[in-house]
Structure prediction request, 318 residues.
Amino acid sequence: MDRELLEILACPKCKGELRLTVDETELRCEPCRLSYRIEDGIPILLIDEASAYE
Amino acid sequence: MTTFPKELTRARFGRVAEKYRKSADHADLEDLDLLFSGLDLAAGLRVLDVATGGGHTAAALSGHAARVVASDLTPAMLSEARKLVAARGAANVSFCAADAEALPFADGAFDRVTCRIAPHHFPEVRAAVSEMARVTKAGGRIGIIDSVVPGVPSLDAFLNGIEKVRDPSHVRSYRVEEWLEFLAGAGLSLVQTASLWKIHPFPEWVARTGQPPAVQREIEAMFLSAFPLAQETYRIRAEGGRVVSYADEKAIFVARKTGAPPAP
Prediction:
């Protein structure tokens, strides 16, 4: 996951910060409780493809 | 607005992604020279290319900017874009699946934002322009290229009608006046406009969408039965009852996000 890209990414829904999971497979928006997967190094920042997490 | 048109766009471009990377039409960069001159590109800038498709614009931008982010609604399209960018040896391009109408970037994250020959696919073009403006820094520039239609309603209906048959995810090619209103509506001030007519060799153009032969023949029939003003305006060339080529107009808009840059 590209660090410079990570710095400017935001949740497509609330535009808030995203946090990279430790295993670097997902980006999470805590306020929205949404998780966006990273596929083959490409973050999939589509609201309708995000999954809710607890 | 439902998400249906976007699903359609993603499904269609997922199927034909490779055709767009290899498309001669999209690799023809005459319009990009005009766009780049208006964008006032400089080393050190961060640029976003929205709806990058086959990645042709992102690849061209990579030599004129510090960092390029290429986004597209269709992940399969980004894989193709990544191949094209890698083949050009550009190492400063990042990829991100994103909806143009809900961009996943912080406010003011980019110095320049481009979007080339894509807004006619956006269900809510005003939302997309407003998002592009949001992620641009104050004083930054946005460059848009898209197919446009003449102000004559019959010519507008003719070409948009054909585009819809060729590609059900086509929403609308707008008039230049509509574009000026979208840009002003997003608080952007126009820096320059230009337009050029692009000739499309018909067989490749019609095959690129992956439509079945019956639909391709229907589109050809629509061109062959065009009314005289449409024949002349769109430079429809036919030989032996087959369409050889036609032309459409691409407009180039460069606009600036006004307002003072944020305090350091």
Notes: The helical segments of chain A are 3-8. The beta strands of chain A are 19-20, 26-29, 34-39, 42-45, 51-52. Chain A touches chain B through 23 residues (CB under 8 Å). The CA atoms of residues 1 and 42 of chain A lie 8 Å apart.
